[in-house]
Amino acid sequence: MVEVIRVETSNPAVRVEIRAIGAGAFCPGCEAWSERVHSSYLRFPADLPSVGRRVVLALRVRRFTCPDGSCPRRTFVEQVQWPPGPGPAPGARRRHPHPLARGPPAGRGDLP
Ligand SMILES: [Zn+2]
C-alpha cells in the first residue's frame, strides 16, 4: 500500500511523490519490527505516459535500523509493492456507491 505525499505540476512533467503506508517494516534478516528510520531516498520505478504530459513517479523508500543489535543486517530497506497488486483494496469501492448509480426506487412507476 502506498500513499501520495505530493503532486507537482509546475514542470512540463507531472511529478507524483508516493511512499509506503506504515510506520515501520520487518527486518528481512531477523524479522524484527523496526520504526527507526535510518534514512530515505527516492526511487523512480516508472514513467507513465499521460495525455499530453509526462507523469513521473517518485517513490520515497525508507531505510530502517534493525532493533536487534546482533542482527548482521543492521539496516535494511523497506519493501514497497509497486506497482500495487491488481484491483482495489477489499471494500474500497463498495462502501460509498455513487448516488446516480442506484436508479429509481423499486416499485414506483407501475401504479395505475
Ligand atoms: Zn534484523
From TrEMBL:
Residues 100-112 have a biased composition (Low complexity). This is Transposase family protein. It comes from Kitasatospora cinereorecta. Residues 77-112 are annotated as: Disordered. Residues 26-68 form the Transposase IS204/IS1001/IS1096/IS1165 zinc-finger domain. InterPro entries: Transposase_Znf (IPR029261).
